Amino acid sequence: MLVDINSRADIALLVHTFYSKIRADEEVNFYFNEMITDWDAHLEKLTNFWEKNLFGGKMYTSDPLQAHVDVENHFSGQIGPNEFGIWLNYWAQTIDELFEGENAALLKRSARKMGTFIYMAMFNTRTK
Q1: Would you say 110 and 64 are in contact if contact means Cβ atoms under 8 Å apart?
Q2: pLDDT in tens, 66-115
Q3: pLDDT-based confidence at residue 23 (cuts at 50, 70, 90)
Q4: What's residue 52's pLDDT?
Q5: Using CB atoms within 10 A of its CB, is residue 56 exposed (0-12), middle (13-18) or buried (19+)?
Q6: Can you give the C-alpha Rg of the chain in angstroms?
Q7: Residues 6+ apart with CB under 8 A from 50
Q8: Cα–Cα distances in Å, from 88 out to 4, 5, 115, 119?
Q9: Dmax over Cα atoms in the chain, in whole Å?
């Protein structure tokens, strides 16, 4: 029986499991592996991010929108809906494998909303 996401440790498990899938996916892994030089620090930052989103933690202080715009610029507008779809599918799949409940559902909805917002912001930075 699966349980809900109830702690920072649960979020860390989710983030680590999810990114192990992303890093292994041949279609999208290079976007991450080329940009991220310290995976331990990145996973900690993302644990902080999702903890803040779910529980109101205060450890995340970065700007996720700017980080994704930087990735967009680095890859010259190559990131599209397909890549975001792969990311979202792995996110939902990983949550469903590990957890169930209100917080699990909330993190899936939050990721869909954020994905749309971030993708549109990235798209809008492209030179017309």
Answers
A1: no
A2: 888 888 888 888 888 899 999 999 999 999 999 999 999 999 999 999 98
A3: very high
A4: 94
A5: exposed
A6: 14
A7: 11, 14, 15, 107
A8: 19, 18, 8, 12
A9: 51
Q: What pTM was computed for the model?
A: 0.90
Measured at the CA of 12, the angle between CA 10 and CA 14, to 5 degrees, comes to 70
The long-range contacts involving 12-18, CB below 8 angstroms and separated by at least 24 positions, are: 12/43, 12/47, 13/98, 14/50, 14/94, 14/95, 14/98, 14/99, 14/107, 15/43, 15/46, 15/47, 15/50, 16/43, 17/94, 17/97, 17/98, 18/90, 18/91, 18/94
Q: What share of the chain is helix, strand, coil (3-state, %, to 5)?
A: 75, 0, 25
Q: What angle do CA 117, 18, 23 make, to 5 degrees?
A: 95
Number of H helices, E strands in the chain: 6, 0
